Amino acid sequence: MEYEAVIGLETHVQLKTKSKMWCGCANQYGAEPNTNVCPVCLGLPGVLPVPNDEALRLTVLTGFLLNCEIPRFAKFDRKSYFYPDMPKNYQITQYDKPSTANGFVEFEFNGSGSTDGRSRVRITRAHLEEDVGKSTHFERNSGLDFNRAGVPLMEIVSEPDITSADMAYEYLNALKEILVQGGVSDCDMEKGQVRCDVNVSVRPVGTKELGAKIEIKNMNSFSGVRRALDYEIPRQIEAVKRGEKLIQSTRRWDDVAGITEQMRTKEDAHDYRYFPDPDLMPSAPDEAWIASVKSRVVELPEARKQRLMREYQLPAGDAEVFKSNVELGNYFEGIAKQAKNPKAVANWVINNLQARIAEVSMFMMVEPGFNQTQMGFFGLDDLKFKPEAILELVNLVESKAISHSAAQQVFAEMFDTGKSPALIVQEKGLAQVSDTGAIEKFCDEAIAANPNPVADYKAGKLAALNSLKGQVMKLSKGKANPALVGEILERKLKS
Ligand code: ADP
Ligand code: MG
Ligand code: ZN
Fold first, then answer.
1. How confident is the model over 201-236, as pLDDT tens digits?
2. How far, in Å, from the CA of 147 to the mean position of ligand 3?
3. Which of 6, 33, 434, 492 gets the most CB atoms within 10 Å of its CB?
4. DSSP annotation of 368
5. How many CA atoms within 13 Å lie on the side-chain side of 418?
6. Whether pTM exceeds 0.90
7. Which domains occur in the chain, in start order?
8. Which of 203, 280, 207, 197 lies closest to 246, judged by CA?
9. ∠ Cα 316 318 321 (to 5°)
């Protein structure tokens, strides 16, 4: 019997707010331990939490970005458990009434269940809660830092729609891209801003019923998630093939050993005794509040890529470049709207402009006296020419006023000096010769001077035409219109 994996992810993301979830302390990474704390986030008796409006907004914004519904009623609950770095002994979270639910993420992934190389993972819910403090274990004692306690934390729960380690990896990357570009979180993995619980089970291919859910807790890197699944899926399949009965349990990933180990089973699961937090009003956003959150929705990278392909008939590769380099994409769109041939504009922007900018930046880095803080210093803002100059250049090529090789010279010159393409063509005498009389003369000269290729061509070696073409281009100093040269040469050789 063949088995398949079923995976659902719970992704915790720290929100990008200035202050914490229930108090005015800074939401700041890397401060001296216990300097961003107050009676509220230390859980001292008698304090009252005040919800952070921006955190609620970012959660609802996430809902919009993940195609979710935005309920008009959400509330906060207490989830009770004891842990030294959780000062209140309960975590405030959203239990049965989350701020947003029922959405999906779509991303590029070629695998089982995907269509056109795209896959979809449904989002069960995204709810708002708070982070806990951080314990550090020393040789003989432990330290507690409460700077992180009460930092707004969002949990995004997926449906069990993921079917492989690679798909989980791509889903997480897509999710991160959405949250970063959407302005919800910086998702800085180094700072622990994204953590993930991985739920995985296996079942016989073709069956619907889910197998026993095994949860791998607290993963802090996407590649770790992939590696853990690459270990755990075959482990479970081998176990059921041996006739073992898997039970619902929680495991830990040992990154060094590259294995998962059992921590606890369902029997010793916590009873969290959820109940509505009596200190907090439910959140019942009005239309104006929701509308103002909605106005912050930006076009997401993948949507942008699809739109660029649709609107400008760009190939996927070009659209991908503009998806990952947003600034370059904006630059392209700024001129492509007026272009007859947007693909030609994209070629110049990607192959010439982007490449040249990278070259100049590299050059600046090796210059003596260059300081590291200037890295990335040379960019689109520093260009000497206006974006429209690219359009002008494309038009000169398209109208055959200049050749492709001349266009390269024009580009180099306008990049260095900021002069307009028309002026450069004039100053350098780069206008393409489309005067048939002049080209006829060059063709006659080339034919007279190259008897061998001429004989080859007449004997049926059609490739010999290229060498004659080359000669004509040389005689015209690169200015002859190559298409015309070809036509005229062929006519002369055939007659
Ligand atoms: P819990 O309440 O224990 O957190 P949930 O049912 O809410 O469990 O599911 C948590 C996560 O586990 C979700 O992402 C869900 O898609 C996933 N999940 C649930 N059951 C399974 C299963 N049998 N196999 C794999 N993933 C599962
Ligand atoms: Mg869970
Ligand atoms: Zn505080």
1. 999 999 999 999 999 999 999 999 999 999 999 999
2. 8
3. 6
4. T
5. 6
6. no
7. 3-292 (no CATH), 309-424 (no CATH), 436-494 (1.10.10.410)
8. 203
9. 110
